[in-house]
Design a protein that fits this description.
By secondary structure, this protein is an all-alpha fold. The protein has one domain: ACP-like (Non-ribosomal Peptide Synthetase Peptidyl Carrier Protein, Chain A, Orthogonal Bundle). The protein is built from 5 helices and no strands. Helix 1 crosses helix 2. The chain is globular and about 30 Å long. The C terminus is likely disordered. This is Carrier domain-containing protein.
């Protein structure tokens, strides 16, 4: 799996309560968010988490159109959220001097 996909899989595990080493904890690139039990409300939470984690806006429509981990990862990358470009939450904002608010 690509680093972006691994980070997104971690978000999926949290949203879908699939933490741990038991069955269902492994999420692969071709797994479907909804087939794993995700709901439309969780998909909205996923879009928010992608924005927080990667600093990019991925539309809910993109997730609904192709909800595989690979496709969501591609959407994040296409929006400019490549692993090397993303900073941990608050890091980029703090470096820009806005105190983490996201505002100038």
């Amino acid at each position: 799996m690509m680093p972006t996909e691994e980070r997104i899989a971690a978000i999926w595990r949290e949203l879908l309560a699939r933490d741990g080493a038991g069955p269902g904890a492994d999420i692969g690139p071709d797994d479907d968010f909804f087939a794993l039990g995700g709901t439309s409300m969780q998909a909205m939470a996923l879009v928010q988490r992608l924005r927080e984690e990667f600093g990019v806006q991925v539309g809910l429509g993109a997730v609904l159109q192709d909800p595989t981990l690979r496709a969501v990862g591609a959407a994040v990358t296409a929006a400019g959220g490549a692993p090397e470009a993303a900073a941990p939450a608050g890091t980029r904002a703090a470096a820009e001097g806005d105190g983490g608010t996201g505002r100038p």
